Write the structure tokens for this entry.
Amino acid sequence: MARVSIIGPTSIVIGDVTGRGDLEIIGRVQGDVVLEGTVTVAPDGVVLGSIRAQGVRVAGRVDGSVVAKESLSLQAGANVSGDLVAARLGIEEGARVRGTVRTEGGDLEEDDDEDEVIADQSDDVDATPSEAPGGHERRRRDRRRRRAHGGGGGGGASPHAVPPPPALPTAPSVPATNVAPSSAASSSASTDSIGARSPQTNPSGRVGPPAPVVPALTKGVRGRRRPSSGQD
């Protein structure tokens, strides 16, 4: 019969517990328990850490994951806050579990080590700037910004951008010159001023009809009376 070690109800162990043989926890352990044997957590026992052993029986409280190479039994009143992994698993009515449950055979310790290596690699990948939180959203915003500005930032013009219209040639500017009025224009202006009858202005400032034009007659010529257009 294997030798059983007991952590009494008044005992508090701070740190990890490792060894060979069976262990019964009636008191309190603040750390991980790794044992080549069977670990039993009594109804008043508390383990604030993970448990890894050949077999595990829990009737108390465990705040951590529980891995059993052979069998794992949760008795009535057990309270486990963590993931459960075992080749054989039994849960009695009244036991409470907050975590995932996985049953599989084989060497669980080696499988768990592989999981840790994969987790470490994924953490390294997640730590890269390209996969940092919010990186996808920033890349989407950058692509939208480049599309809105025609692919700016040296990325070339967008294939859907409309080329600007060609610039129209500008006409050469002609310097303004003062043109003096010609003699013909002066003569026509003077003729118009002679032929036109300027209106007469009376002393009150009102504009009246133009003065009648009386043709000049030479000496010895009688004036002829213009026939009336109406009836005499």
The longest strand covers residues 66-74.
